[in-house]
Amino acid sequence: MNSEITGIIFQVLLVLTLSYPLGYYIAKVYKGEKTFLDFLSPLENKLFKLCKIDSNEQMNWRHFLVVLLTVNLFLFFWGMILLVIQGILPLNPDGNIGQNVSQAFNSSISFIANCNLQHYSGESGATYFTQIFVVMLFQFLAAATGMAAFAAVLKGMAAKTTKSLGNFWVYLVKSVTRILLPLSLIVGILLVIGGVPMTFEGKQTFTTMEGRTQTVSQGPVAAIAAIKQIGTNGGGFYGANSAHPLENPSYFTNIVECVSIILLPMALIWAIGFYLRKKKFAFSIFGVMLFAYLFTVFVSVNQEMKGNPRIDKMGISQSSGSMEGKETRLGSAATAFWAMTTTATSNGSVNGMHDSTTPISEMLMMLNMQTNCWFGGVGVGFMNYYIFIIIAVFLSGLMVGRTPEFMGKKIEAKEMKIAIIIALLHPFMILCGTAISSYLANSNPELASQWLANPSFHGLSEMLYEFTSSSANNGSGLEGLGDNTNFWNISTGLVIIITRYLPIIGQIAIVGLLASKKYIPQSAGTLQTDTSTFSLMTFVVILIIAALAFFPSLTLGPIAEYLTL
Amino acid sequence: MKNFLISIKITIAFCVILFIGYVLVLWGVAKIATPNSGNAKVLKLNNKIVGVENIGQKFTSKKYFWSRPSYIDYNGESSGGSNKGTTNPKYLKDVSLRIDSFLISHPYLDRKELPSEMVTASGSGLDPHISIQSANIQIKRISQARGVKQEDIKKIVDSLIETPIIGVPVINVLKLNIALDEKYKVNNQQ
Description:
By secondary structure, chain A is an all-alpha fold. Chain A has 19 helices and four strands.
């Protein structure tokens, strides 16, 4: 068999094997049960004491949200200020200057929201100081915020009737010390051994064999490359992200990094089963997600390995597939696999340029982000899926004439309203943003030529992709888009804020409302939510709400481009 | 307000924890466990640094193996691809011009033998590798330019093929050219 295909199958099997025990461990961490990392407890307790946190305090859903939003607000200012003044801060051997205000606004919001859209290039737009104390710090804390919300959802679902969703600070700290930090350390060490730089010395300059001068940027790359993958963040050290031969030097590091993208999102689904003692429920969710994800992988790998038909017509050999924007050591199959993995999980790191992939792959990337719940970002992926479960329960209830119940709780008008608003927010933000930007580009050809790297259908795809990626908190881009302008910095920044925090607020609210309701024991009349019929139902709901909303715009973009190939 | 104060404290605490427990640990591992103490690995020729192993360089001389086209002209201070779409007419014209000029430099070559990666720009613009096929098609040109046997160059190429257990076999262009210059020192200095 082709060694590239073997590589993909190996990676899928590896991550499936690793995610299951990890899910078991995560469930224990959030339940507060004994684990082998308990020797960290004294350190954590000291931290609580130092920060005057009462770790036994129980929070209801409103209190929980207030705390979550406060810390995020503070971090936003922290990031913005440091990015603007980075030029005068230490750890800046290359002498890079501060970001301007609109760029710093966009960067700060995008890192704290787990989006990691980057309108700057790491080589010149950030210093080692901000790479560590803004980018890397936020990559830990944003991921931990999502996971803390996830832990609250689990707690709310597990209890019969409760007002408490747990303690945000405890979840936040434990997500870092017990899950993100150990995993990132392992991945980081593997990357360092694999040849990823980890240094505080500045650029290296030398004369090449043909007598040209070449300067090579380096820095604490491994530290960022590890957590950016583990925490579904995606923001790389270098502008070219993991396509850069120092951030991802070999097929081995590529396996480590690509598996790290989807390891935690998969493990968190297993954790639901262990936490709630409802393995079948977790299994049915996992099944739907895995099916959708592998379907996109299958199609995209196929498309990229076949290559670009227009280049075929030029009569040269395309045995390695569509190679524009791809790296030789990774090959077209691994790049397609990564592209699907990074968009399904809201990670957003890339190991090849998405702008130059074939149109069908491009469409699948957007579709993955538009549904935004095939595993999804750490913590929030399941929470997005949860919204669709609520809607599916309601619809199924109506179809068979029963009161809709989920996990022993009645779903009523208030929860449904929130669920629908959250479900429709995503297409609303993406489509409105794209409509406004295409209107501007269309009425001003100068603006269009400044923004878009490609004409016609592909130009529309670039704008649609940018808003999709912002709204899905993904952070990858069709990088041909000239996006470091006030319009793009501010518009995508606003989209990121709205689509990160409103869904979290809505999802926590639904869980909080349901948790405080009276528990209804299961009876013969209860709708089963762990069957394959119900899984199919949820899948159809997702397809109708999320995917169909986007088909008209996808038709004008990638599908039209495909048809003109 | 109470939460705001906690936020400030916990942010600073995490800065310390992550810097000591993560960044410094990785930095220490890199210092000890890697041959180049965490820096990008450099390659030398005649005791002079001529490049970084994993960063591609531009080669135009007929005596050397050529790297892939780069949209950023192998500038190691930045990185990125062309970001041109599959149907972009300007891009397709660029590719077609690259094919023509490659074939002019390699007149013995049949169009069908030219792999697409030699005429398409890489994702990072710094791709240090080419495929084995891409190296093989350049051997004849180099042997003519250097006046040496094709078989000898072929031997160098074969000895530098990197085949991972899983993944794609590749050749590092810089290593290849260093090996060439090392073997044919006299020729090169003339």
